[in-house]
Amino acid sequence: MTESRVSPPTADLTTLGRRGLVVGGLFAVVSLAGLVSNPTQFFRSYLVAFALVLGVALGSLAISMLHHMSGGAWGLVIRRILEASSRTIPLVALFAVPLFFGLRYLYPWADPGRVAADEILRHRAIYMNPTGVAIRLAVCLLLWTVFAQALSRMSKRQDDAPEPGLERKMRLVAAPGLALYCLLVSVVSVDLLMSLDLHWFSAIYGIYVVGGQAISGLAFTLVVCLFLARNGPMQEVLQPRHVHDLGKLLLAFTMLWAYFALSQFLIIWSGNLPEEIGFFHDRLTGGWGAVSLALPLFHFAVPFVFLLSRNFKRDLGKLVWIAGLLLFMRWVDLFWLVAPTFHPGKLSLHWLDLTTPVALLGIWLREFARQLAGRSLLPVNDPALAIALEVHAHD
Question: Which of 41, 119, 147, 242 sits most deeply, having the most CB atoms within 10 A of its CB?
Fold first, then answer.
């Protein structure tokens, strides 16, 4: 295996990171101007942006752990991308800090006056309070960081020298890590998203967010694969069969998200309980009805139709178009979860809703590029790598 097949295109990644930082920094300055002029809207928009970036990092961690448990050539060729995304979780934790300066603009449980006047808020105050939310989020981010760093360190040890049994150790870390990931995402999604309205609840909400994060992580990974394939060593490594497997996985995650979304809707709508149905009523009336229609159409139906094609899934250039669409729809989905709480029945899109995601993603991209450039693009001493890179005749 030649060095060009395993070394990351450092210059290209440095340029990518620098451009991300410049764009992110410029949009961050614009967003800070919005913070001064309209702090309420800033924190509402910032919450959506934070959830989007968190989803990409955590989705990548989950897919990485899934691969360690299941194996397969598809995961070996993207492992370094997933690990680089996972290692950005400490930066994402820093992104969470501004949220706690704006709790009173977002959550009824953070306003003592509203808590005192609402029996439900008083009843849940022992759990839903600023201190409790901050502690739980900090613990969750710490645990995710621990698992991401543990897997990354063992993967680096494997690069340095073959070590028998290391693959089994990584599986032993990944198995509980994946289960804990699902549990902790449920905790954080309830704290940061569902608790925007403590009068409404859904037992499937956390799993719905898990499905969205899996799409975010894989879609971003596919976009990076195209960048690397056009600018360096991944062009020699990534084969149509690998792309096909990734396309099938993206189809599976898309169907899984749609299943969770439909299940939540049907159960709540058929039950028609006053304390539950308001969530969908606010999102199906006024301008929000168009967004509610766009989600099943562009987050599921359109990707589903294209991803059914075998030839489409084997063409990375085409597949990335669907990945890009799904990344955009991940923002739409999170926006749909958050914004109608503050503007029920009336579609409202503020310019901060657009600048804050670009700001956070640009800054995050700089750290991702730095992490990816620091290691080889392939786990060079993994026992399964030789088989994974075999060129098949039909490819």
Answer: 242
